[in-house]
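Study this one:
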Amino acid sequence: MTTTTTVTPYRSPLPAGHDGFLRLLHAEWTKFRTVRGWVAGMLVAGLVTVAVGLLGAAGSSIACTGPGGGSCRHTPLTGPGGEEVSDTMTLVHRPLTGNGSITARITSLTGVHPPDGRTAPGDPTAGTVPGVQPWAKAGVIVKNGTGQGSAYAAVALTGGHGVRMQYDYTHDLAGTPGPASASSPRWLRLTRAGDTLTGYDSADGTHWKAIGTARLAGLPATVQAGLFTTSPEYTVTSTSLGGSSTSAGPSRATAAFDAVTLRGSTGGGWTDDLVGGGAGGPDTSGLGHRQAGGTFTLTGSGDVAPVVPGRGSPGKSVESSLIGAFAGLVVVTVVATMSVTAEYRRGLIRTTLTANPRRGRVLAAKAVVIGSVSFVTGLAAAALAVPLVGAVEKGKGFPLHRTPFATDVRVVVGTAALFAVTAVLALALGTVLRRSAGAVTAVVVAIVLPYILAVAAVLPAGPSRWLTRITPAAAFAVQQSVHQYAQVAADYTPADGYFPLSPWAGLGVLCGYAAAAVAVAAVLLRGRDA
């Protein structure tokens, strides 16, 4: 009689797939950390990122002489929200206590500007030509005092964008389009009800159209209500293969108002102020106002708007501290590529795939390990570079553009994510090509080269924007800390720190390329011999 014994194989109570992947991750991590060249490469990537930033800051300089030959250390002017702002205008005002309104009709807005952005020393009007700046503004305003940077709301006619309601520097609402003239004037009105300001415009002074409302929290009982005129700098930027240069000179705008009515509890007469002007500043001759009967003529220069960093500004932003990121990415790319191509070159990939037949999981484990290591490397490098490079720039006398803490965190974490996703892309291309040189070249050409061409202003603005929109270099937008404002005319190019996509959308473009490369690598890894 034959007896058959059935042996039941042991099965782990843990989920097999999860347990197997964790073991695979541990194996890949052990493999990575035991190769000294790879670990050293990641350390070099972090050090290069910081070092290039420090060298760039140490090699830069700024020449500036203040009044009387003294230093002109820059102290940023901040608005109610903590953003850097410009607040310079000709203001004619009276105190308004409690609720009320101011109404005025504007019959003309003209201006002059230097044709090439340069003005003659000592005479800001010499050599100027007629022309009103598109964002020159003249209108009615309610302001929390005459101090620079104070809260305000205004309804103004602009040089080229019709009527706008603007408040607290960063907010802009569109009203009726078109210019004004004696035959086609613009009526402007601003009403106050507590902390709420409402703007209106009209073509005839009878039929009014609401533009929008603004709530100025903490507005005091007594504010200044009146008329204002200002006109931003006229800027000319010249770009060549050797770089770019910017010339900027003050422009002036002159506006004529009549039918001025101030309703509410008011006191005193009209007072003329050059907000942001005064001794030691730009030449203010010719600025101010004239009053003849019921007509006010105001001539102003400057701007009431957020400050926009760019080539015309000497200030440094947080992303300038991370200029070395492109160099760190090159090193990360080399390490990530070699982490897989070295196995092909030495034949060790056969051992890896024999021990782990599910090839897709092998690739996923390699991607997780190299991505995580690269993320930590980028995080440490960015966290060191931002304060260290910023300190050198500050010591050199450069003004530092302020950014919210949350933005600084996003830039640092975003740089780490940029390192991580680039490493995964390099790993996938290394798997596809099986050769380090080809994979490294492909990543550098796809990411680093377009970035350098764009930010160094080697290419015109249009191609630079497209390069940083459709190539993996779009991911550098994650380092962007500056904002674009519709009411501030500027180039807004990558050379000025502005990318066409939002920070996370730009990183998403790189993620899309990396995901596609990983998918191709997974298919090829399964379908061909090791």
In short: Residues 9-18, 65-72 have pLDDT under 50 and may be disordered. The two ends are 51 Å apart (CA to CA). The longest strand covers residues 89-113. The chain has two domains: 32-57+315-482+489-527, 85-306.
